[in-house]
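Lab notebook, entry 311. We have the chain sequence and a SMILES string for nicotinamide-adenine-dinucleotide, and the next step in the workflow is to get a structural model of the bound complex before anyone spends time on docking refinements. Request logged below.

Task: model protein plus nicotinamide-adenine-dinucleotide, output structure tokens.
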Amino acid sequence: MSEKTKVIVTGGAGFIGSNIVDTLLEMGMTPIVIDDLSTGKEENVNPDAIMYRQDTRDLEGLEKIFSNHKPDYVLHLAAQISVSRSVREPIYDESVNVKGTLNVLEMCHKYGVKKIVFTSSGGVMYGENPPFPTPESVCPDPVSPYGISKLAGEKYVKFYGIEKGLRYTILRYGNVYGPRQSPDGEAGVIAIFAKKMLNKEPVTINGDGEYIRDYIYVKDVVNANILSMENGDGEIFNIGTGTGKSVNDVFLSLKEHIYYDADPIYGPPRPGDLRKSILDISHAKEVLKWKPKYSFSEGLRETVKFFESRR
Ligand SMILES: NC(=O)c1ccc[n+]([C@@H]2O[C@H](COP(=O)([O-])OP(=O)(O)OC[C@H]3O[C@@H](n4cnc5c(N)ncnc54)[C@H](O)[C@@H]3O)[C@@H](O)[C@H]2O)c1
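Result returned:
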């Protein structure tokens, strides 16, 4: 892959996408960002990248970009990402996560893209009672509209793979955290807590704080995307750490990194949230030759440093 390797990153102005864009530039590739800036920010996008403010639901607009650049690869991250919003607005969630994905797939097929890497979620995919850690082979049983729309996206990707010969890899992330995650939305407990603790504001935990998640640092997720451009064709991979932490654990760990002495306030649980999610990552280790490199403590340190610098 060289400077001439053109990579469309949908959602490239968002938290994870913009971190991917930085790495593609470091590797000498040409990233082309497609983002409607609904939750992403222009300031996240490296000025050396090409940026289009474009909604993935608008096929005509997408086509102009694909026909102009003829990308080699597409990393598809643009999505409605909030479970709570998907519960409140399932039709909007579906329009972005299903129709937007279908439009991107159609463009990949029409313009001969070498491969698409599709972003899914391991945190919402496996239902309430899978084995832990959960391997990809467990039958999906999402309970939220967000999980359902991500599963539909996966199925369309597979359809384009089987019927139209489009190369693909599907990555199911755990709970991703790190620099540039928005602390103002409804997703991203680490960013939300870090901002509140740094501002000495009260922190609210939804439910009893014993909801377990597999927290993965964003740079490890970036690396999984890069490896997937050339490996793991036609496969689904969990991208997490294989270990779980409760929200109460996260609160206490962050307290150690930030001088904060208040206790949390406990609020009602959020509808659509699963109680526990821990991903089995053996398949990614074996096939993608990927494994997480950042410990939770290293990841938290980098994340807190970022939010401190933003104050
Ligand atoms: N953050 C996590 O813990 C996590 C976990 C599992 C999966 N994911 C997936 O990773 C991807 C990136 O998520 P993120 O955490 O960086 O969130 P994010 O909100 O920062 O990024 C999503 C980006 O998509 C853009 N976008 C939304 N709708 C769009 C549309 N219709 N057209 C074009 N752009 C649009 C937003 O403006 C934003 O920049 C998403 O697909 C998300 O579902 C994230």
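Notes for the group: The mean pLDDT is 96. Worth checking against the assay data. Residues 11, 13-17, 34-40, 55-57, 77-81, 96, 100, 119, 121, 123, 173, 175-176, 182 surround nicotinamide-adenine-dinucleotide (CB under 6 Å).
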